[in-house]
Amino acid sequence: MIWIEINKEEPIYQQIYVGIRDQILLGELREGDRLPSSRELAGTLNVSRTVILEAYDQLMAEGFINSKQGAGTFVESGALLESFQTSDVQLTYDKTACSINTPKNLIDFRSGVPCLEKFPRKKWGSIAKDVYENINPSLFGYHSPEGSEQLRNVLATYLYRARGIRCHSNQIVITSGATQAFTLLAKLLINSNTEVLIEDPVTKEIPEIFIERGARIIPIPVDQFGIQTDRLSSKRRKSIIFVTPSHQFPLGGILPIQRRIQLIDFAKGTNSYILEDDYDSEFRYSGQPVSSLQGLSPEQVIYIGTFSKILSPSLRIGYLILPISLVEKVKNLKRYTDYHSPTIEQVILAHFIQHGHLEKHVIQMRKLYKRKRDFLIACLKNEFGNLIKIHGASTGIHLVGEFNFKFSKKILDEIKENGVNIFSVEKHALVKGNHDNKLIFGYGNLTEEELEEGVRRLKNVMKYTFLGR
Ligand SMILES: Cc1ncc(COP(=O)(O)O)c(C=O)c1O
Q1: How many domains is the chain partitioned into structurally?
Q2: Same domain for 386 and 316
Q3: What is the DSSP string of 249-286?
Q4: What pLDDT is recorded for position 95?
Q5: Ligand 1, pocket-test mutation among 199, 249, 276, 315, most atoms within 8 A of CB
C-alpha cells in the first residue's frame, strides 16, 4: 500500500507525485511493482481522483511508471538511484522576505533612491495599458540587442535638449540600468593589463566590476570640484578613465570646464576612453543642468545614463552612448548577455518621453527634492550648528555632511541600532582613511517628518559618543 502524508501548504498533486517518485528512487517501490488504481489511491489518501491522475501522468512522462492496457500501472526499470536522499528543504517561504519596506521605523538615509511614492503610476499605467492593447504583435517577439528603435530615437532628441548630448540613435544601446552598461564596457575594454583611472571616492560597486575583469585600479583623488585632473599628468598611458563630472558621487562636485578640457586632452593624448557616468544631474537646484562631457568630445567619451534616479530603479533601464566604432561590439556583448532588454517597458518609456511626461515629472521632482534638501539642511544646521559642513548639495538626491569625528563601523552600527541607517563616504573610498568623518544623507525617498526624526536620532547617538553631553 502507498501512504503519503498530505499537508495543506503545498499543491496535493505535487505531494503525491513527489511521494511516489521518492519511493521509487529510494527502492521502496521496485521495478515491476504495481501501483494502486487512481480510484483506489484517491480513496486511501482521501483526495480527488483527478490529482492522482495528474501525478501519475507526470510520473509517466518522466519515465518512472508505465501503464499496461488492462493490467494497471507499474514501476519502470532503471529508476532506482543508490545515492538518493529525500530533501528536507522546506517548500514554504519566509513571508517576511517578501517585504518591500525597510524594517519598521528605521530611517534609511541610503543614497540613490528617488521618491518612490511619486512614481507617476497613473500616467505610466495608462500608457502601459494603451501599449499592451495596441502595439503590433511583432513587438512581443525577439528584437535586436541595441533596444527599441522608438526609444532610441526619442532619447537622442531628449538628450540633446536636456543634456547637450550629440548623438545619433544608432549610437545608443539600451541596457539593464547603468550597472549592466559598466559590465558590458568592462568586458569590452578591460583585460588584465588595463589601467583604470578612477575617481576616489566612487560608488563601491563600480571599481569592483572592473577589478573582476582584472583591471589595475588607479585612484585619482577628488576635491569639492570633482576629479583632480592635475593628478593625471604623471600617468601618460593608454587607460580607461571613470568619472561622474556632472555630480561627483558621493562628494557632489561639479567638474569645471577647465578640468573637463584637461581630461579630454589627456584622453586624446593617451588614446584613452573616458566613461562618463551621468546618473542624477537632471536634479540641479540652481541654474540649468550642466552640459555633458560627451558633448565636448563624442569620440573620446562613452556616456552612461540611467532612468533609475529620474523615474525608478526597478525599471532597470539605462543606456550607453558610444563612439560609432564600438557600437557593433557592444551590441554583440549585449546579445550574448541577455539578448536585449525588455521591449515593452522600453516602448512605454518612449511614449512617456515623447508626450512630454518625463520633462514634466523631472520639473515636479526637482521642486520636491529642492524642498526636501532645504529642509534637511535646516534640520542638520539646527541640530549640529557649526559642527557640520555640508557638501555637494546643489544637485541630486543626496548630500554629504562633514563632521569633526570619525564614524567607525561600530558607531555606524550603533546609529543603526538607534533607528538610522546611514553610510560614511569612507565606504566608497579606494584609499582608506580620508573620508570616515563624512556621512552621506540620501533624502530622495524620505518625508520631512522622517528627515527631521532621522537627524534627531543621529544627534542623540552622537551626543553620547562624541559630543560628551
Ligand atoms: C554613481 C552611480 N552610477 C550608477 C549607478 C547605477 O544605477 P543603475 O544600475 O540603477 O542604473 C548608481 C547606483 O546607485 C550610482 O550611484
Answers
A1: 3
A2: no
A3: TTT-----HHHHHHHHHHHHHHT-EEEEEESSTT-BSS
A4: 44
A5: 249
